[in-house]
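During the practical work, I worked with a single protein chain and the tokens that describe its fold, as given directly below.
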Amino acid sequence: MPKAQETAVYTHGHHESVLRSHTWRTAANSAGYLLGSLKPHMRILDIGCGPGTITADLAELVPDGRVTGVDQAPGVLEQARRTAAERGLDNVDFAVADVHALDYPDDTFCVVHAHQVLQHVGDPVRALREMRRVTRPGGFIAVRDADYAAMTWYPAVPGLDDWLELYERVARANGGEPDAGRRLVSWARAAGLRDITATSGTWTFATEEERAWWSGLWADRTLASAYAERAIGGGHATPDRLRAVSEAWREWGRQEDGWFAVLHGEILCRKERAGDGAGGN
């Protein structure tokens, strides 16, 4: 197995408040830009699969193919396996892996997919080179990442500005890049990819139920997750500051006219075939 190359620390960890968000994700709400390119026979690698909800959706969309979900955290893969088993899927498997050094031969997969991964890794360009390496010629590298600085909300609860400033500082101290969405095209070009289709997508939380869910998971994450531990342990925040940020989230969630939008950058890159040259867009 290749030597692991990861140098960043995963900011969120796998606290219940984090998995509450991750298990909500589906192929429809998190990988829509990719779905039109899928064929029933495809073999897919889903990097950073977490609890496996997107992985399971992809497996259902390629009934004659196979999906492999990989993650650096062995514990969360147990939940992913349960997700697949509960849905009766027999064309999906899971393994521990580091995106910087994938233990697969060249040209193995028709699609290599990563959702909310590159913002957390130490070398996103190297990660994309590895994704390209294990993709078959003519296949796709599909990446979607949030852009924290581009997130926007109403009304302007002051404590949420403090949340954003603090989160970005903690994430960068952990070796990641929270504004990854805007950098995906640049990273892909640096990795040697040229046939790149760039799009963007959003999550929007505006109903009473959506506000309660989104604000609640961030209020809890701010106080009880690995992010909270790293914010305090790294000297970025005091417990009192985190309590104030958590309450700001709950205050926003109580606003009847509250609205929050999460912007994501998306890239769908086709790996060149022999003789294609450097073309693309």
